Amino acid sequence: xxxxxxxxxxxxxxxxxxxxxxxxxxxxxxxxxxxxxxxxxxxxxxxxxxxxxxxxxxxxxxxxxxxxxxxxxxxxxxxxxxxxxxxxxxxxxxxxxxxxxxxxxxxxxxxxxxxxxxxxxxxxxxxxxxxxxxxxxxxxxxxxxxxxxxxxxxxxxxxxxxxxxxxxxxxxxxxxxxxxxxxxxxxxxxxxxxxxxxxxxxxxxxxxxxxxxxxxxxxxxxxxxxxxxxxxxxxxxxxxxxxxxxxxxxxxxxxxxxxxxxxxxxxxxxxxxxxxxxxxxxxxxxxxxxxxxxxxx
Length: 297
Fold this sequence. Notes:
By secondary structure, the chain is α/β, with parallel strands linked by helices. It contains nine helices and nine strands.
C-alpha cells in the first residue's frame, strides 16, 4: 500500500466511529429535509384517494402533485393533456356475477382486475388544481469541498433537485434526485443525502455493476442501503463534515441492520463495497508501491 495515501486509514477510522455509535445505541433516524405536507394520490375531481396498489403505482411517479385525472376528466376540468405525455396505470377490481349452469339459482361473484389510464395534473395544461403549502426554507452556503467531490465524479448520473420531498436514484433514467439545499436544516445533511444517492448510482451496470433493484425489505435491498450509507459517511469524512452527519448515519444503518437481521459484520462487509464506490466517485487511482519499497520487499 502507498503509505502516502491517507484514504484507507480514513475509511477505517470512520467505520470504527460508526460501529462505536452503533454499540453505544443511537437515536431513531430522522429525515433531514423538510417538504410540503404529503397527500396520497387522489382524483382531482372527486378528491377520492386511490387505494391499494394504486398508492404505490402513482405515489412513486416523478410528479410533486398528488392529483390525477383521466383524459376525459382533464377536458371536463377545462383543460387538456399536454401533447406527448404518457399515461400511468391505475387498477381496480370489477365484480362479475357468474351463474352455475347446473343450478341457475346459484351465483358467484368473481373479481376481475381491470386498469385504466390517468394523467397527473402536471401533465396537463389549463387544469386548475390546489398548490401544496410551501415547505420551510433555510439559507445555506454551499460547502466547497463537498461540492468539489460531487462535481468531480467521473461518468456521473444526472442530478436533479425537484421539490417533491424525496431523495432517490432512478436506474432507468440514471438520475439522482435530492431535495434542494434550502430544504435541509443543515447544509451537511444535504451533502450526506446527495452522497448516499451518488453511491447508489455507482451500482449501475455502466459503473461498478452491483445488484440494484431488489424488492424493498429484502436482504439485497438492505445490503445496498448499508453500502450507500457507509459510502456517504466516507464521503462526508473526506469533505470534513462527518461530525455534523454521523449520528444520523449511524441511526439509519442501525435501522437497516434490524431489518436484515444481520450482526455488525454486515456493516463491515458493506464498508468494503462502499470504499470501492467512494474510490469511483473520487476517481481514486489504485495504490502503487514505489520502486524503492518494492526492491526492499
